[in-house]
Specification:
By secondary structure, this protein is α+β, with helices and mostly antiparallel strands. The protein is about 60% helix and about 15% strand. Helix 3 runs antiparallel to helix 4 and helix 7 packs antiparallel against helix 8.
């Protein structure tokens, strides 16, 4: 029968019984499930709590051992001196304790930190052992040194007694005895300073250097003992060797002490890191405990929810019981632990757990309370260490400020800072770098921050600083900056020392030195000082150059040997000036025409004087000779006389040039007219042509005369440079292995120059270039038109148009040290020559209102740049023929000239050309006739004016008045020479063109055609 039919056949009682049985089975199943769940939950709880408790126990043990290690280490660091056995035993114990801590700890970071701590401890123990050994060696050396001193005392005492009995002078041995006593005191003082060095980790650098200085001084003094007396030399040498060893031992001790101090600092840093990691681990345990409690709570809540779904209301009691069990067994104890650990994390190590339980929580209670007591003890040790640090921090006499490396904020200061600046501790922390400084460049807060940044990036810095006290007083300080990192933060430690007195002393010393240096530099004369016996004491640099003797070589020699003077006229030796000064006691001077013979035989004309040197009581203690080289001055006077003679020739030539050119103009003009009249007669034409050539030669001779007189002004004429440059250069280079390469444009502007003088300039520069290339080579000659030279190349040149001439060689070049002297008169580097070549070039170009520059690189050649002002004159080329057809329409042309023959010549020339000539003598007549003709309706078409009219109005004034009458008037200026600025810039004065005398018929027609 099927189950459904069987259930249907059952009675109600049986069904209830079956249901009850099913309910019972379900409840039994629930009980089994709950039992198994509780058993499983208990096991999870026990495992979690046990795991955390083991970690807590280990960390507590690590903290306790670490605190013990740190406390005993600090004790050992301060008590190891002279106790090697104690150092060895205690050090091994501490290292073993450190290894035990490493083995016990389970945290990798803590293990690493403790290992670093142990390594630094091992280094510290090693340094401490070395320090103890050095102390033992120092004691042995001191015993040996004092033993040697005792023996020296005995020897010196014995010598003194023997000398007394022998009636000899005992002052030297008594002095040695006193020195030995001084050495004893010095050694005692050095031993005292060494003791201070041996027991202090932070001894100032100045004190270390002072100890070293005392030892160096003692070694130097002992060297005298070793060589001063034969009887004491052996013991003196032994003593010197022992003291030298003592000095070396001090150096090693200072180096080891520095290593010891650095290792202690590193040890303290590792200690701080370890304690920080231990605190972090405790915080992690507290956090882990909270997470565990939360996980267990969620687990049981989930289990209860599942059982509630299965058992419905029947599991309510089980859930309540389970909840009570969890709360009483886990939650309440866990909350107590959490509260206590929170108090620990906030720094309250006095908090304790009170559970009054006998289960596993009692073990946790005991471990946490023990850990709190050990941490409290460690914090007490840290506070004591902080107090020791503060005591050491406040010991130095220099001010110490600790700044935040990023902001520059003051974090801590020592007592010396408060005393130096006058602030209280709270006030000092509230200050900034700006208020502690003068706060003016370069001593502002920004400058200080920059130095802090430089310290961080490049290492320790040391510099002088202008500081300010609280009362506003300014003072000089020396600041040393050093960058450090502690506990993850970056700091800059500033050590400030008041150096006001030192600065004042330095300023006084610097002022005295500067005054002496300025005095010596400003003396351009030679200075020799002697004693009263005529022995040289000092030579200055100029005296060294003139005599050929160095100061060291001349010192101690008789003055007559170094200062060898003779008469220029007779060649006989001059009287010793030293003896004359000593005899007269007055200042004396040498006679004129005195020659100084240098050590190498060089002779120079000099002017000098001698004076006595007196002490504070006016007694003569020496003589000073002051002398100077006047060779160049005498040479200059001689050459100046030559130049004046040349200038007189130039003045004479300039005086006759105007008249002579007027005569030549009349001759040349009449020759041209005669040539036209006899153009059909070959013989007469040939003779007139020869006469014309002779006349032109006479005109050139006038120009050469002016050129020969170098001091004369240039006699200018409008010229083009290409032919002039080529002829001058080729003439100089004829027969040599040097050639010129020309680059001259066809449209080069004309210039108003003295052809002879400019040829001389070109020749002088080419000659220098040829000398610079003795093996031959190429000279580059380039010309160019340049506008606005002042803006382009030469700041001092006025604006305008210039023609640039560039001459470049490829020779040896000019050394940089003499390039500024090449234009100086009489300066030359050649064995022959007067040294006037480039000086004359500079003079000629300057008188042409031009400029000359030079650029040279040794080994690469030299380049000269010559700038000549471009001319506004009409460039007239002289033709070979005179076949000019007269104009079909004549012009009315006024000619103004003071020479009757030139006026007549002009009338004939103009008539021949088909023009009407109006002749006037001077400017007043020209203005009057111009006005009359203009009023009559027959105005003048063109005016040709002579620039200079002796005793009358010249062209400059006349053109101005004519332009006032008619601004459109056309006027040409003419002159026998063009050194007047009117000809170089004729348009600025109202003329439309200029022409130089003498000019021929063809030139007259060309200029008239150009302007009409």
């Amino acid at each position: 029968m099927s189950g459904r039919l069987r259930l249907a056949a059952m009675s109600i009682t049986s069904r209830i019984r079956l249901f009850n049985r099913v309910i019972g089975l379900v409840f039994l199943l629930m009980v089994v499930v709950m039992t198994l769940s509780l058993a499983y939950s208990r096991q999870v709880l026990v495992n979690s709590v046990t795991r955390n408790m083991e970690t807590v126990i280990k960390n507590a043990q690590v903290g306790r051992d670490l605190a013990s290690l740190l406390a005993e280490s600090n004790l050992l660091f301060n008590t190891f001196y002279g106790r090697n056995d104690f150092l060895k035993t205690q050090g091994d114990q501490l290292l073993g304790m450190g290894e035990k801590i490493v083995a016990l700890s389970t945290d990798p970071e803590l293990n690493s930190s403790v290992r670093h701590l142990v390594e630094h401890l091992r280094s510290i123990l090693s340094c401490a052992a070395v320090l103890n050994n050095l102390l033992q060696e120092k004691n042995s050396l001191e015993q040996a040194i004092f033993s040697e001193l005792d023996m020296l005392d005995e020897i010196i005492a014995e010598q003194t007694i023997n000398q007394i009995f022998a009636g000899q002078d005992t002052s030297f041995t008594e002095q040695l005895s006193v020195q030995i006593l001084d050495y004893r005191y010095s050694l005692l003082d050095i031993g005292k300073k060494f003791a201070e060095l041996a027991t202090g980790h932070g001894v100032p650098e100045a004190q270390k250097k002072g100890l070293r200085t005392r030892l160096d001084d003692l070694v130097l003094n002992l060297q005298m003992i070793a060589v001063s007396n034969r009887e004491t030399s052996e013991h003196g040498s032994h003593l010197l060797a022992q003291v030298t060893k003592y000095r070396d031992l001090v150096d090693r001790y200072q180096k080891t002490m520095e290593d010891f101090t650095n290792e202690i600092q590193a040890f303290n840093s590792a200690r701080a890191t370890s304690l920080s990691l231990l605190r972090d681990m405790d915080a992690e345990i507290a956090s882990s405990t909270r997470v565990t409690a939360q996980n267990i709570t969620e687990f049981f809540l989930g289990t209860g929810a599942s059982l509630l779904v299965i058992a419905l209301l029947g599991m309510a009691g089980v859930i309540v019981a389970t909840s009570w069990f969890l709360r009483s067994t886990i939650n309440e104890p866990m909350e107590m632990v959490k509260k206590t650990l929170t108090a620990f994390s906030q720094g309250d190590l006095t908090a304790r757990i009170r559970m009054h339980r006998s289960d596993e929580w009692s073990l946790i209670e005991k471990m946490l309370n023990t850990m709190a007591e050990e941490l409290l003890a460690s914090r007490h040790d840290l506070q004591q260490s902080e107090e020791k640090y503060r005591e050491i921090f406040n010991t130095p006499s220099d001010a110490i400020l600790i700044h935040d490396a990023q902001t520059g904020e003051i974090i801590d200061v020592n007592q010396a800072m408060l005393e130096m600046f006058g602030y209280s501790y709270e006030e000092a922390l509230a200050q900034n770098i700006g208020t502690l400084s003068v706060n003016e460049p370069p001593y502002t807060s920004e400058d200080a921050i920059e130095k802090i940044t430089r310290t961080i990036e490049h290492g320790p810095q040391r510099f002088d600083w202008r500081s300010r006290r609280k009362n506003g007083e300014l003072f000089w300080s020396e600041v040393g900056l050093k960058y450090r990192e502690f506990g993850g933060r970056r700091y800059v430690v500033a050590v400030v020392r008041d150096i006001t007195e030192r600065k004042q002393a330095e300023q006084l010393l610097a002022a005295e030195r500067e005054q002496l240096a300025v005095t010596l530099r400003s003396i351009g004369d030679g200075v020799i000082t002697t004693d009263t016996h005529g022995t040289i004491v000092f030579l200055n640099r100029v005296a060294e150059q003139l005599t050929g003797w160095s100061n060291d070589e001349a010192r101690g020699r008789p003055v007559s040997e170094v200062f060898n003077i003779i008469s220029e006229k007779t060649g006989e030796p001059c009287e010793n000036p030293i003896q004359r000064v000593l005899e007269t006691g007055k200042i004396i001077g040498l006679a004129n025409h005195t020659t100084l013979i240098a050590r190498d035989g060089t002779r120079r004309s000099i002017a000098d004087s001698g004076a006595p040197i007196r002490d504070s009581e006016s007694r003569i203690i020496g003589v000073v000779l002051v002398f100077r080289d006047v060779t160049n001055e005498q040479r200059m006077e001689e050459e100046l006389l030559k130049v004046k003679k040349l200038e007189s020739v130039g003045i004479l030539a300039a005086g006759i040039a105007h008249d002579f050119n007027n005569i030549l103009a009349a001759i040349l003009g009449n020759i041209d007219l005669a040539a036209r009249l006899v153009s059909g007669e070959e013989k007469a034409t040939r003779l007139l042509s020869e006469a014309r050539k002779a006349t032109s030669r006479a005109a050139r001779l006038t120009q050469q005369l002016l050129t020969f007189a170098k001091g004369g002004d240039p006699v200018k004429e409008t010229a083009t440079l290409p032919q002039l440059i080529r002829e001058a250069a080729d003439f100089v280079l004829h027969g040599s292995q040097v050639y010129c390469e020309y680059d001259i444009p066809d449209d080069l502007w004309p210039v108003s120059v003295d052809v002879g003088q400019i040829s001389q300039v070109i020749q002088n520069i080419i000659i220098n270039a040829r000398h610079a290339m003795p093996e031959g080579g190429r000279i580059e000659v380039r010309c160019a038109n340049v506008e606005d030279v002042g803006a382009a190349t030469l700041l001092s040149i006025h604006r305008g148009k210039f023609v640039q001439i560039t001459i470049k060689d490829h020779g040896v070049g000019i050394p940089r040290e003499i390039i500024d002297k090449i234009f100086d008169p009489y300066y030359t580097t050649k064995q022959e020559g007067s040294g006037l070549g480039l000086a004359i070039c500079h003079s000629i170009i300057t008188k042409h209102d031009g400029y000359i520059q030079v650029h040279s690189e040794p080994g690469q050649g030299t380049t000269f740049h010559v700038y000549l002002p471009a001319s506004e004159q009409v460039d007239l080329e002289r033709g070979d023929t005179l076949d000019i057809t007269p104009a079909t329409t004549g012009a009315r042309i006024m000619v103004m000239d003071d020479e009757e023959m030139l006026r007549s010549l002009a009338a004939s020339q103009l008539a021949h050309l088909g023009h009407e000539a109006i002749l006037v003598r001077d400017g007043e007549e020209a203005v009057q006739r111009y006005q009359e003709l203009l009023d009559a309706g027959t105005p003048v078409d063109l005016i040709i004016m002579d620039l200079t009219i002796p005793g009358g109005m010249g062209g400059r004034e006349a053109v101005r008045r004519i332009l006032d009458i008619n601004p459109k008037a056309r006027v040409i200026v003419a002159s026998g020479y063009s050194n007047d600025p009117v000809l170089a810039n004729c348009r600025e004065y109202g003329f439309i063109a200029s022409v130089a005398k003498p000019f021929d018929l063809e030139e007259m027609q060309a200029v008239i055609s150009a302007v009409l």
